[in-house]
């Protein structure tokens, strides 16, 4: 889950710039008495340089009527922070201007209980909060801190943790680079707020500390993916019920009016056929698109049944249920354990070579009339993004206590990554690979064998990735206790899609920070190719909460849509069950899975991960296609003009960008450049021979 970061008490253009580039989501300007106080005039000047995606908070304790008038008169503020007790007055004073602002009410922890404000007359929190309807309705989240502000005093983390289970809660007070990870693990807040913790001298911000703080927070986000349940206190429940009930409708209406075109409503023409659904049309339980997205981003999806709305789930034989449940338990514990992430981060840095760079593609930008950036997963160890998930799951396998690892592979990249991770961590490894793919991706077969893996050709079915997954699942059923099936894409029964996304979301986290650092702003559009969907879901997760970023998944259009010779699962498929989960797939009228085709082995799969099906349904991601010939042409462009041989998979994303650029000149575009093309030499020689 992405954590909202607010850096508070900024006073200079330099520190504002550093906080933006470090990936802060909001900047606070203190307009009341404080060592960090700025005038309205100074705040206005500082705000002009802040890009639109970063929120700007006017910070008060108890603002006066004149203060609120001045905030309204100052262009650029998006939020008003004040002690919660003052929030109703602020809401009333904003009157007709309320649509421009959100209120950030501050709740304080005082001697083991909550207070709406510490000025004379403020009582300990009473259920009368419900009287302040309008103020709560204007709040997207609440902020919790200790009795005093800006002097390093920490909040009561246990109380904050309970509040965070009930309302979106921003933890403030005494956070530092050293303690923020521990605080996040203890409180599970939806945001953090830092001020004195990134200062070396009182009131003077330190650039290195701002950067280190934001990085420390981003590094913990993976831990948040699976939330523990906490006990609820009656006192807190009154805040929660008023916050939730009162504000949900208000926010929804306001969001709807503000929503961008890409957040289109649920496609109405969908005919969903879920043989396992207990009643009627599963989309009937869907809320609005923004509310559904919020559920995903807050960790509510996947739910206890592993569902993203109607998609996902776990449709597996009884013999595998024990394994799947154990895997979920082990993953949950590992994801909440800093030691696990410490080991993962260390290996990711030294062995994989993370962070991978974001590169400006100078020549293609010129040729296509856009500003194009590559997130270079091709430079990760073994040459593709697959290694992130292979490493993560191999570390999980240690905790599972299994004796060996099996995997499937299509393009061979996941097979190579798994073979390498097994060699590194110390597991025997068997890889199932379709006989057709063994032929067309032969360099990777050699690599797997050299890394110590046994490669088993699969000749059944279409002898590509689908058949390889079938075979690996069969082998897992035969030895459920001693084997971990290291699934390579964001597909399969729950918890696989969640596990794979958790490990791959490092791509999006890094890319977001790198784009901010390089360009000072977020891209207009983000593209990634979609096979099963792991590289795409990994990079998308860095940007799903940024409504200004249009997101596109690119499927393989094969020989053209008219021929039916493609792997465009979401563009041309229908919902159904494949490989243990309910998602889109290519199937005939009788529900038989049909063969797919793509020049790229990694995209040649008739299914897709359930989270993509969900994102498509709520309209947050648009899915499009690129044909074989367009991908080959884009690959040639990239070789000639950027000096990089891309894999055929990301070449599909490049082809879609080339097309999109024609009507979107001047836009900034980021692409998940998910692999290098050495593995594709046999296909390239066959498709476009050179002497
Ligand atoms: C380089 C590369 N990119 C993309 C993919 C597609 O997989 P996914 O959609 O899971 O990222 C593959 C699959 O083998 C691949 O090798």
**Main sheet characteristics:** 8 strands, parallel, barrel
CATH superfamily of the largest domain: Aldolase class I
| Alpha-carbon Rg, integer | 26 Å
Structural class: alpha/beta
Number of DSSP helices? 25
Provide the spatial order of strands within the biggest beta sheet.
1-2-3-4-5-7-8-9
**Tally of discrete structural domains:** 3
What are the bound molecules? pyridoxal-5'-phosphate
Which word captures the global form? globular
Query: Low-confidence segments, ≥5 residues, pLDDT <50?
Result: 119-134, 224-235, 244-285
Task: State the name of the first-level CATH class of the largest domain.
Answer: Alpha Beta
Helix content: 40-55%
Mean pLDDT: 86
How much of the sequence is in beta strands?
15-25%
CATH architecture of the largest domain: Alpha-Beta Barrel
- Amino-to-carboxy terminus distance: 50 Å
